[in-house]
Amino acid sequence: MGVQRQARRRRMEPDARRAEILGAARGLFGARSYGTVSLADIAAEAGVTRALVSHYFGGKRQLYLEVVRQMMVVPASVSARLPPTGAEERVAICVDRWLEVVERNREMWLSAIGLEALGDDPEIDRIMLEADEIATDRILEAVMMTDVTDGRQKLRAMIRAHSGMLKAASREWLVRGTLSRGDLHVMLTRTVLHLVHTVFPALRDDREHPRAPAPGPAQEREGPYPDS
Amino acid sequence: MGVQRQARRRRMEPDARRAEILGAARGLFGARSYGTVSLADIAAEAGVTRALVSHYFGGKRQLYLEVVRQMMVVPASVSARLPPTGAEERVAICVDRWLEVVERNREMWLSAIGLEALGDDPEIDRIMLEADEIATDRILEAVMMTDVTDGRQKLRAMIRAHSGMLKAASREWLVRGTLSRGDLHVMLTRTVLHLVHTVFPALRDDREHPRAPAPGPAQEREGPYPDS
DNA sequence: GCGCACTGTTGACGAGTTGCCAGGAGTGAC
DNA sequence: GTCACTCCTGGCAACTCGTCAACAGTGCGC
Fold first, then answer.
1. Neighbour tally for B143: CB within 10 Å
2. A37, A77, B123, B182: which could form a disulfide with A212 (CB 3.0–4.6 Å)?
3. Would you place residue B47 in the very low, low, confident or very high pLDDT band (cuts 50, 70, 90)?
């Protein structure tokens, strides 16, 4: 576009080139979706040939995984240096810091939660799962329930489910503008506390009833939901 | 595969052919992901040529949209004939019926929530949004808050956020097995009630404070979260 | 200063996919 | 029978990705 027509071949250190390509990929995958971004686009953005991108990352999918991996890191500072007060305040601080991070990295966060489940790609599932696990640890730390052993799996699963709400609520806030940051703060804080303090004990008491107790007296199963 | 080698050309009514193709597409899209299913696969499954599939639906994307549209319909029966009792029981019944539907259409539901945000495809967003709107109406109906006018948008947004939790919890139940159906019943029911009865009033009182009130006394904003 | 090995980088090929269109082939009307 | 209608197909063009032999910077020995 400018006068400076760059040399046909510009030889770089592998690390530098790799970072350059990764940056281009991050930008494009953040702006558009996986399917609409081609390796040619990324290569052009990075000023490189398609083949080199494949050479460095082994293919489109693996490059994408690399970008996702980089996007999903949950800053450890979110749950660092929490005061030894009650769970309420600790969670409130944690949530506030988290919203701060989300607000700053708005578009990155959106595309990260947007891809979520691009398919039944086991690799992506694993990455998202790892990220969720880390986030779950942060929350458990905040509510001071890291030492729960009885029903620990259920507790963690509940918090992962809560992070689903977190993502949806973030969309409402950042994309649709139907909720404010303050709304999210109140909603997420209260919901987490409600889950761990009220719902979780109810589940533990309920352990020997894996099926739901009959929700109503005259609730007979009426069938005609189309199976397909 | 069998002895019966079907006629090279079998002429059908457009509606019948359309339904046949749609069925094949539903099966394949339900089993695998969008990217890994090709029009050739669908055409073969339907015993038809690729071109005919495109002819009927205009292309892969539009066929996919059609399948999604069909998958996301929320059965109206979920919130039909609810007893005029308290909100708790009505929600409990509603949730139980919903879990029943999900359990029956397991794989379809999973792939439906799996695609969720396959990209920034505005069509898919619109479809998913419509489905969420309908689901929100069902919930509001169940908790008898259809006539709320003050903060109605916030209320609906909260319920949409809750449906994010619902989807994540469904994955925990159906895919990972970390939560039982009974767990979901308890969790979803209580969370909805908590949201509309406790959190929502708190948001309404909070309307003139769009930013979160300081979560703690000595909570000063400390900056160093990496921007990228 | 010159040539050589090392390796970053490229162009091109093959296999796969989708969208599109002219034309072949059922099917019912007369 | 044959004719029109339209369902349906084969094939072409364009695009995508993965792969590989070959080209060309870069630093080293001499």
1. 21
2. B182
3. very high
Amino acid identity of residue A228, one-letter, is S
B67 token code pair:
């399948």
Q: Is the pLDDT of residue A105 over 70?
A: yes
- Please check the confidence at residue B124 and state whether its pLDDT lies above 80: no
Spatial distance between the Cα atoms of B139 and B194, rounded to a whole number of angstroms: 13
Average pLDDT over residues A101-108: 82
Helix (H) or strand (E) holding A63: helix A60-71
| Cβ-based contacts of A93 with chain B (< 8 Å) | 215-216, 219
C-alpha to C-alpha distance for B225 and B203, rounded to whole angstroms: 28
Entry pTM: 0.76
| φ and ψ of B37, to 5 deg | -100, 120
CB contact under 8 A, A172 and B191: no
3-state secondary structure of B154: helix
DSSP string, A103-151: HHTHHHHHHHHHHS-SSS-HHHHHHHHHHHHHHHHHHHHHTT-TT--TT
pLDDT confidence of residue B222: 35
The answer to whether some atom of strand C lies closer than 7 Å to the beta carbon of B51 is yes
pLDDT at B8: 64
Residue of B74, B183, B200, B208 to mutate, interface with A, max A Cβ within 10 Å: B183
Decide if A161 and B179 are in contact by the 8 Å CB cutoff. Answer: yes
Average pLDDT over residues B172-200: 95
Residues B59-92 have pLDDT tens digits of 999 999 999 888 777 777 888 889 999 999 999 9
What CA–CA distance (Å, rounded) separates A32 from A12? Answer: 28
The answer to whether B156 CB sits below 7 Å from nucleic acid chain C is no
- Quick one: average pLDDT of B165-187? 94
Say if residues A138 and B145 touch (Cβ distance below 8 Å): no
- Which protein residue's Cα is closest to nucleotide D15 at C1'? A38
